[in-house]
Design brief:
4-stranded mixed beta sheet; 6 helices; alpha+beta; 157 residues
Length: 157
């Protein structure tokens, strides 16, 4: 697992990357995470862990750019039930559900690609072998009239 990047959030909304010794934007924090890194964000003044707040802010910004993230009825439920029911759900089940979804999606995609490869290989093999094997030809000969059979034999090399 990738080492955590420790970031410091200052009161002026600036975020300082302690690894690079430079200020970074929310978009750059998002890119770190998309690149597989874990981040830990500490409030520079209080020392409080504000990682969840910053990550939520990134999600809200992404939603703002795409004009939708979660369905409106779901957002109503989150606001209505707040920390009671949904807090427990988010804490215990949502992460596990998403991880399982990603695992099974990757496994399905891999299996589907294997099936496509088998289909491609079968198609190539079939093109090479099926013309030589003509099981239907002898069956069709049974239904041809004697004159047609003779024409067919004459036209073959």
């Amino acid at each position: 697992m990738a080492q955590k990047v420790v970031l410091k959030k200052y009161a002026n909304r600036r975020i300082y990357d302690t690894e690079k010794s430079a200020y970074i934007t929310l978009e750059q924090v998002c890119e770190l995470i998309k690149g597989g890194r874990q981040v830990s964000v500490i409030d520079a003044r209080t020392g409080e862990d504000v990682t969840a707040f910053i990550l939520s802010q990134i999600i809200v910004e992404e939603a703002k750019n795409k004009n939708i993230l979660l369905p409106v009825p779901f957002l109503h439920l989150v606001i209505q039930h707040g920390e009671n029911v949904l807090g427990e759900f988010f804490e215990k089940y949502l992460e596990l559900t998403i991880r399982n979804y990603l695992f099974y999606k990757a496994a399905f995609d891999e299996q589907f690609n294997r099936w496509l490869d088998v289909g491609k290989n079968f198609s190539t093999i079939a093109q090479k072998t099926l013309p030589a094997a003509t099981p239907w030809e002898s069956l069709l000969d049974l239904f041809l009239s004697p004159g047609k059979k003779a024409e067919k034999k004459d036209s073959q090399p």
